[in-house]
Specification:
heterodimer, A: 248 residues, alpha/beta, Rossmann fold, 6-stranded mixed β-sheet, two-stranded antiparallel ribbon, 8 helices, 10 strands, B: mainly alpha, MetI-like fold, 2 domains, 12 helices, 0% strand, binds adenosine-5'-diphosphate, binds magnesium ion, MetI-like (chain B), Nitrate ABC transporter permease (chain B), MetI-like_sf (chain B)
Chain lengths: 248, 284
Amino acid sequence: MRKVYEDRGVEALREVTFEVDAGELVCVVGPSGCGKTTLLRCVAGLLPPTAGSVRVGGVPVTGPPPRMAVVFQEYGRSLFPWMTVRQNVELPLKEKKVPAGRRNELVAGALAAVGLADVADAHPWQLSGGMQQRVAIARAVAYEPQVLLMDEPFAAVDAQTRADLEDLILALWRDLGVTTLFVTHDIDEAVYLGQRVIVLSGSPTVVMEDLKIDLPPERDQLTTRSLPRFADLRGRLYAQIQRARGDR
Amino acid sequence: MNETGRDAARVKAPGEAPGPGRGARAGWAGRVAARVLTVAGVPALLVLAWQVYSSLSENFYVPAPGRVARAFVETWFSERLLDDVLPSLARLLAGYALAAAAGVGLGVAIGLSPRLRAAAEPVLEFFRAIPPPVLVPLIMVLAGIDDGMKVLVIASGCVWPILLNTVEGVRALDEVLSDTCRMYGVRGPSRLRHLVLRGASPQIMAGLRQALSIGIILMVISEMFASSSGLGFTIVLFQRGFEIPEMWSGILLLGLLGYTLALLFRRLERRVLSWHRGRGVDRA
Ligand SMILES: Nc1ncnc2c1ncn2[C@@H]1O[C@H](COP(=O)(O)OP(=O)(O)O)[C@@H](O)[C@H]1O
Ligand SMILES: [Mg+2]
């Protein structure tokens, strides 16, 4: 797939090809400005690729696919300020015509999972950045997607919240079997979360490396991150990213 | 929500109940007194100055405030309330509602479509630049001199700020929110209701506020031309008949009317835009 922003003649993606199996959790890393957000927006059907195509479950994407959820990089701006946290999470379910009883269950479950059950009636702007982020995640989770896209979702939260959210994503992914594409610029995070990590080069952007993360499936912030294999993988990715930067 | 938090904090400390309770009550009385003084102080001074001026100058056209007050009660607490004030108000509301519906409806359509916008914007700016009162003679010719004409005059003056502000508001919608709607299948009427109208509501309300004062002006002016009832008509009638205190009382009534409507509008705005104000405070 290739993407050029015609209006400014910016070539965001030169040639990016990869596959993600159903139920897999794949992380995408790359230097900032290399086109990670562009890639995600193409996969989401929000942007048409200039050449090539995106397929989800074998079906070519021409617009946002029905059972796909996105957590945007600008999560704060993706919440409706005139709705409460609960209403924000509930709206997509109403549009999906989920019956009221089931809807309440899903909303309550999702908010509890991200630890926001007690601020359900607050408005997003009354919450901290990290909490807003969790609202956006809860909304995606309550939607019961088959495919979940996340764009640097933890860039703006503190270290502890970040660790908690990483484990939350892992738990959700394991419990719900959602195919997940997770964009980050943090190599540690990519290794910790992913079953595979795709490294994008700097512009002109191509896939530089598609690395299988052969760590044990049960991940834990302390033990996983101190495994020698973790350090190996991280070192390897780090070198790749350095090269990606240097090539530019 | 912030206030709730503060109240909760206050409730949690009832130990020192009696002392602060009395103190708070005294402070409350003081605050009310201060507020009354702030609100009524300047008007009282103005009335006083008016009284002094009218008693010194003996100007026939400037009657004493007491005389105007009496004229006010005699003139307006009578069948005139039904014959002149209410029809005026009804026409104002009808014209305003018409302008709001047309302005928001067209504004949303133009705001959502770049092509429509490119075609319409210069024309809109041109119409906005025409001072609304000059529409009165024109519409009189086109639509006759009945109620319909007056409603049309009011609507045609009010519609521009509503329309242009709505276009502006719809255009400024956050694209991340817009993408969010696309991803989660929020489209059609639901998108209009949850995203477009709510997102543009700060600008729409600003347009409606500007339109309200234009509407009052046009209500009066439309009644000054070829009319047989209404507030504007009555004021001109008094002026021609040299019933000067009555004329003044009409002006006073208009002032009060405008003030009341603005007050009501502000309450509505607070309710509609509570999320917006709260967010502004948080960011400040
Ligand atoms: N809407 C747009 N129009 C034109 N160029 C864009 C647009 N969005 C992003 N770009 C450009 O495309 C490149 C990739 O951007 P982006 O996908 O946001 O990168 P990343 O998310 O990896 O930081 C950048 O050079 C950026 O300036
Ligand atoms: Mg990005």
